[in-house]
Amino acid sequence: MYIEQIKKFKPELFLYFIVPFCFLALMAWNYVASMDMDTNEVIHQSISMLGVNGTFLIMVGPLAIGLFIVLIWTKFIQRIPITALTTSRPKIDWKRVFLSFFLWGTITATMIYISYLTTPENFIWNLKLDKFLIFLIIAIIFIPMQTSFEEYLFRAHMMQGIGLATNSRLIPLLVTSFLFGIMHAANPEVDKVGWVIMIYYIGTGLFLGIITLMDEGLELALGFHAANNLISALLVTADWTAFQTHSIFKDVSEPSAGFEIFTPIFIVFPILFFIFSKIYGWKNWQAKLFGKLTN
């Protein structure tokens, strides 16, 4: 089992809380610092000095480095193999990663295309091929590292540590989902749309945590998260988002708490639960999500 398997390595529980504490403290400091400034204005100032790609690298670069910190900490400090951090299977199932990536990438691209067809006045053509190609290379390298860091920190390192400490599945699921959402509190989207967007962030964290527990591994969450950020960053940007990129389109509409927030959480994600459960034969939902750990 995904959490229980760690017991055989006889882990020191306090080692599970050092990296998350440092990261969350840094996020809290960033949020407090951002309260006295216009985050979106800071991003625009950075773009004027460093360019879009330079600003993007500054934002995702530290998170990409964070991936190596989590992996090195796990392997060399905790003495736990990366495979055990990732999955309960004998080896990482890359087919699961790519299936999840292409499934959610296709859905994301389709939803953006439908939005463009139904409200073309909300989009302008933003493609500058030379800049886009450079960004494409940067995005393909750094976005999967950024999203993998968040998955390995929240759905792997923290979920396993909290699970072992509480002998519970539900507690780490709820705690990591909440913290994953709160991590985005300093994003300019929060100022623009309002705190209702936390429904999307926390709901997405809950979705990723559920598929991790049900599938007994991180692979599906890794693929989903990478597709979510990468495809969105390549296809559409806006002047009020955290990631402002050399994308194909720019969304010039005024953001609102509606379709973009509630459709994924209450319609699309339940459909994905059904698809994944049929593909991988998920059973015993109650035990896997609400049960105690087995010995």
TrEMBL record:
Keywords: Membrane, Transmembrane, Transmembrane helix. Residues 132-231 form the CAAX prenyl protease 2/Lysostaphin resistance protein A-like domain. The chain crosses the membrane at residues 12-32, 52-76, 97-117, 132-149, 170-187, 193-213, 220-241, 261-282. GO terms for biological process: CAAX-box protein maturation. Pfam families: Rce1-like. GO terms for molecular function: endopeptidase activity. The keyword Transmembrane helix applies. PANTHER family: MEMBRANE-ASSOCIATED PROTEASE-RELATED (PTHR39430), PROTEASE (PTHR39430:SF1). This is CAAX prenyl protease 2/Lysostaphin resistance protein A-like domain-containing protein. The lineage of its organism: Bacteria, Pseudomonadati, Bacteroidota, Flavobacteriia, Flavobacteriales.
